[in-house]
Design goal:
The complex is a heterodimer of chains A (about 110) and B (about 110).
Chain A (H helix, E strand, L loop, with lengths): L3 E4 L2 E5 L4 E7 L6 E7 L6 E7 L4 E4 L2 E6 L4 E6 L8 E7 L8 E2 L3 E6 L1
Parallel strand pairs in A: 2-11
Antiparallel strand pairs in A: 1-3, 3-8, 4-5, 4-9, 6-7, 7-8, 9-10, 9-11
Chain B lengths: L4 E3 L2 E4 L5 E6 L6 E8 L3 E9 L2 E5 L6 E5 L5 E5 L8 E8 L8 E2 L3 E5 L1
Parallel strand pairs in B: 2-11
Antiparallel strand pairs in B: 1-3, 3-8, 4-5, 4-9, 5-6, 7-8, 9-10, 9-11
Classes of the chains: A mainly beta (about 110), B mainly beta (about 110).
Chain lengths: ~110, ~110
């Protein structure tokens, strides 16, 4: 089955800096890659997603890149703010339904 | 539209008991997926239901089961509870066939003593 690895497990940045979180997947048939943000005690919320026919997608300060050949995708957050502090999960889906395989999460801390 | 709701929000059970958790998807959504979240294992897929049929299943023992009703509401059941079943159980709904945005509910936190 699909396996998703996520790095780093923790990331601390200064406010205003950029943050990058990387994920690799094992199943070359995976074609949908969402990113979720989960604040403490809250439900995961989708922040951005990308499909395999697209190499990059941006939404304001957030961007995701996908390299199908290398089977990895990354989340980029620019101009980080304290409210960006949360756990971020990457996920991959192979299709034939809505089964998501999640990475292990990255605890992002934005320091003032 | 109202979001995904789950009941109950918190539950305490003892080993050997069984438990039923409920999930009401966003109105109009026909797909409901269930996930288990633990500090050690992270977010793991349990199963997915679409139009009352189980469409996908994760690698959990048969003690974990689910169903979906004609109004798309879903329930999951865990029989013969073990200490290791203590977790946050999240359901997520999406609108259509596959790879659509999944919206998560607040979760049911289960503690097995």
């Amino acid at each position: 089955g699909e396996n998703v690895e996520q790095h780093p497990s923790t990331l601390s940045v200064q406010e205003g800096d950029s943050a990058v979180i990387k994920c690799t997947y094992s199943d070359s048939a995976s074609n949908y890659f969402p990113w979720y943000k989960q604040e403490l005690g809250k439900r995961p919320q989708l922040i951005i997603d990308i499909r395999s026919n697209v190499g990059e997608k941006k939404d304001q300060r957030i961007a995701v890149t996908l390299n199908k050949t290398a089977k990895h995708f990354s989340l980029h957050i620019t101009e980080t703010q304290p409210e960006d502090s949360a756990v971020y999960f990457c996920a991959a889906s192979t299709g034939g339904g809505n089964k998501l395989t999640f990475g292990t999460g990255t605890q992002l801390k934005v320091e003032l | 539209k109202a979001g995904v709701t789950q009941t109950p929000r918190y539950l305490i059970k003892t080993r050997g008991q069984q438990v039923t958790l409920s999930c009401s998807p966003i109105s109009g959504h026909r797909s409901v997926s269930w996930y288990q979240q633990t500090p050690g294992q992270g977010l793991q897929f349990l199963f997915e239901y679409f139009s009352e049929t189980q469409r996908n299943k994760g690698n959990f023992p048969g003690r974990f089961s689910g169903r979906q009703f004609s109004n798309s509401r879903s329930e999951m059941n865990v029989s013969t509870l073990e200490l290791g079943d203590s977790a946050l159980y999240l359901c997520a709904s999406s609108s259509d066939w596959y790879q659509e945005t999944q919206y998560f509910g607040p979760g049911t936190r289960l503690l097995v003593l």
